[in-house]
Design brief:
single chain; about 80 residues; alpha+beta; 5-stranded antiparallel sheet; 2 helices
């Protein structure tokens, strides 16, 4: 789930499309994960990451597509 304190959270001009100030929330293995979208990356538990994939790897210990891990893309093929 992605939240933004004011308007929409998508910014087509920004790589990754998420507006700074947005938050991404996900529950994983019983833990609530809350990520803050920054101008130059992402912050989780006081650590900064340059990509969602690096953050997802830190959380899970395995390689992940960050947008897929956080549910920002649909993993089902288009019909």
């Amino acid at each position: 789930e992605v939240r933004h304190p004011t308007a929409g959270f998508l910014d087509e001009q920004r790589p990754g499309g998420l507006m700074p100030g947005s938050t991404i929330e996900k529950e994983w293995r019983g833990q609530k994960i809350r990520v803050e979208v920054l101008r130059d990356g992402f912050e989780w538990n006081g650590e900064r990451f340059t990509s969602l994939s690096a953050l997802a790897c830190r959380i899970t210990g395995t390689k992940w597509n960050g947008r897929l891990f956080f549910g920002l893309v649909d993993r089902r093929p288009a019909s």
